[in-house]
Write a structure and sequence with these properties.
About 15% of the residues lie in helices and about 45% in strands. By secondary structure, the chain is mainly beta.
């Protein structure tokens, strides 16, 4: 896994967590225009904040820290709670 970036998609990484011992946190499936399906493994999550916004985002990333999807939250604590519920990530796993 690559080093944790300081920024993702132009936003500042406030907190992050990486799957333990390279186990996957989850899977995402994308349907392509030709009808085929692409499977992406989610290996890390990041809570990101944009300077010009009040909200935060939980970014779901692959092993290269490429953002695959995001979820908008009101605060860092809300992002951690959302990740606990949806990815079985405990609060103590966030850095």
């Amino acid at each position: 896994m690559q080093e944790v970036p300081k920024e993702l998609d132009g936003g500042l990484v406030i907190k992050h967590t990486v799957s333990p011992e390279d186990q996957k946190l989850g899977m995402m499936f994308f349907e392509e225009k030709d009808g085929s399906t692409t499977e992406v493994t989610i290996m890390s999550l990041a809570i990101v904040h944009y300077e010009e916004e009040n909200d935060y985002y939980v970014f779901m990333c692959d092993q290269n820290w490429d953002v695959q999807d995001d979820y908008k939250v009101d605060s860092v604590d809300d992002g951690i709670a959302w990740a606990e519920k949806n990815f079985d990530v405990e609060k103590k796993q966030w850095v």
